[in-house]
Each structure stands twice: as C-alpha cells, then as structure tokens.
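Chain A, query sequence.
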Amino acid sequence: MLRIMMLLLAMTCMTPVLAAQPVSQGDADAAMIKQFEQSDEVAPERAISTKRKHEILFLMGAGLLILLLLTAALGLAMGIWEKDVFTWHMLSAGLTLTLAIVHAVVSFVWFYPD
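Chain A, predicted structure.
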C-alpha cells in the first residue's frame, strides 16, 4: 500500500505543470460550443446519391427474399420429407434475420424524415 502511495506521489510530482494562460470566460465558452457544432456538409467521398441508396436497399431486399425462400424450403424439407438439413436451415435463418435487421437499420438511417 505504501509503495502505491509513493508511486502516485512520484507521478504527480513528475507531471509538467501547464502555464495558465489568461483566457476570458466568454472565449472559453465559445471555444467549447464550437467543438460541438455540426455542419451539414458531407465529405465528397462519403456522399451517396439517393438513386444509389435505393439500388443498395433493393439488392439487400432481393437477397433477403432469396434467403427467406431458402429458409422456408429447408424448413419444409425437414418437416415434410424428413431431410437432415437442420444445420443449413438454422444457418439460413440466422443470415435472413441478420440481413433483415441490417436492411431495416440502413433504411431508417438513410430515409428517416427530417
């Protein structure tokens, strides 16, 4: 315990002391607020057109429909024809659910009304 206290004391003594610069309270408040201001500008490399967003969501939806039909077909194969495809059925069900959640989140983020 004594070693820890001595180590903490030594660390506080070794840290450099910053010289206090005279800054008015108003300037400090303005600088603090400026940090949190958000601009509506989007970097050109991050900008995606609305048409491209629709294309991406369409492809995700098509994949989701295919996975949903595959999951249903594997479930029917297990239930009706007694095939041993439980692992594939659960794998496709997990992928379907994951893609459905991603599709919903992306559509809310991109097209939530302002």
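Residues 103 and 109 are 10 Å apart (CA to CA). The mean pLDDT is 83.
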